[in-house]
Amino acid sequence: MRKLVAIEGIDGSGKTTLANLLKEYLESKMKLNVIVTREPFSEDIIKLIEKIGWNDPILLVLLFAADRALHINWLSKIQDDTNLIILDRYYFSSIAYQGALGVDEQWIKMVNSYFPKPDMVILLDLPIEVAISRIKNDKFNFEEKIRSLAKVREKYLKLAKEYNFYIIDASKDKNEVLEQAIKIIQKNLL
Asked: Given Cys at both, which of 96, 110, 132, 133 links 155, Cβ 3.0 to 4.6 Å?
């Protein structure tokens, strides 16, 4: 049976790095077939968001949900022997980010309620100062990100309690983070 693992966290927490390291480890050491995907998924949706801008959080919820529908549809058509799908962001990102901008969380959850629940969510948590130092060269609304990161982190920590996320201290070295993630996956999923 194919398992879904979502990796969540604020910008700069190391989601993409962890997803790629997990894939490499699980394929080479455990002989699993792993797919890593990232949200936003669709180039068309990404271009649309870049064209329209990041200023309308309600529109972003809907665009990210449309993107997620395309993403899940694509994943459902994969007919190989994949054991594990690692999602670099999932619908929890919409709840955290757009929720931090004032969009009603219950509405965001309703919009995303038709998507499959992940078998596991790993939250990469780190202090805001560390995240800011990691994303200082990011081209997307840096000032806006700085203002909202604390609220987004707070939302993620609330979601972690509500949905029983596994939390890893992402301020540690990437190999330590990987080691913790492997232990969590081996103990609770494989």
From this structure: 96
Q: Hey, which CATH number is domain 3-185, 3.40.50.620, 3.40.50.300, 3.50.50.60, 3.90.1440.10?
A: 3.40.50.300
CA torsion angle for 150, 118, 166, 148 (degrees, to 10)? 0
Q: What is the mean pLDDT of residues 105-134?
A: 94
Mean pLDDT score across all residues of the chain: 91
Strand runs (DSSP E) across 89-134, as ranges? 120-125
pLDDT 10s digits, 119-132: 999 999 999 888 88
pTM above 0.85, yes or no: yes
As a whole number of angstroms, the distance between CA 86 and CA 18 comes to 10
**CA neighbor of 5 nearest in space, from 163, 170, 119, 168:** 119
